[in-house]
Amino acid sequence: MKINGNEIRPGNVIEHNGGLWAAIKTAHVKPGKGGAFAQVELKNLIDGTKLNERFRASETVERVRLEQKDYQFLYAEGEMLVFMDTETYEQLALQKEFVGERAAFLQDGMMVTVESHEDKPIGIKLPDQVVLEIVEADPVVKGQTATSSYKPAVMENGMRVMVPPFIDSGEKILVDTNEITYLRRAD
């Protein structure tokens, strides 16, 4: 679907320079001289590189619609992660590097959304929050009030996160999967 350059919004996926790019930020600029344009920060969906580009209102770009499908995480086997389509029960195997460091948050039975273009997976969305158990928490240093009162802790998936001093080993916490930060104690 073709759209004008000034109609690009954050979250849109466009075809540009032979690749698929997601618009992250857009700013409409009206200089004193010349025509208005949209300054767009783009992120390549395949390799993650970023690019700043100007699009004039008179230019047209191809907006791409991504197919989104829900999958259930089944298991990890070596460097492969195996997911199951919840409607057709077909299995999909993806490389761990495709998911990146957030692969550590995958738990058996977890529902994820796989984004694809022309039947080729190009992105995966995990739940924004997951519950994990703390397996190791450093003791609080007495008199450490001049600096931040957070302490490092190791979660059951092996990742480190900063937690408040009242969190101890064995407690379950809610973690933001995008920022990899502590949110609160799990209920």
Automatic annotation (TrEMBL):
Pathway: Protein biosynthesis; polypeptide chain elongation
InterPro entries: Elong-fact-P_C, NA-bd_OB-fold, Rib_uL2_dom2, Transl_elong_fac_P/YeiP, Transl_elong_KOW-like, Transl_elong_P/YeiP_cen, Transl_elong_P/YeiP_CS, Transl_elongation_fac_P
Every Translation elongation factor P/YeiP central domain range: 68-122
GO terms, molecular function: translation elongation factor activity
CDD domains with a match to the protein in the record: S1_EF-P_repeat_1, S1_EF-P_repeat_2
GO biological process: peptide biosynthetic process
Keyword entries, A-Z: Cytoplasm, Elongation factor, Protein biosynthesis
Alphabetized Gene3D superfamilies for the sequence: 2.30.30.30, Nucleic acid-binding proteins
SUPFAM superfamilies: Nucleic acid-binding proteins, Translation proteins SH3-like domain
One Pfam family this sequence matches: Elong-fact-P_C
Record-level GO cellular component terms: cytosol
Chain ranges of the Elongation factor P C-terminal domain: 130-185
Protein location: Cytoplasm
Role summary: Involved in peptide bond synthesis. Stimulates efficient translation and peptide-bond synthesis on native or reconstituted 70S ribosomes in vitro. Probably functions indirectly by altering the affinity of the ribosome for aminoacyl-tRNA, thus increasing their reactivity as acceptors for peptidyl transferase.
Family to which this protein belongs: Belongs to the elongation factor P family.
HAMAP family to which the protein is assigned, alphabetical: EF_P
Protein's name according to its UniProt entry: Elongation factor P
Species for this entry: Aurantimonas marianensis
Lineage start: Bacteria, Pseudomonadati, Pseudomonadota, Alphaproteobacteria, Hyphomicrobiales
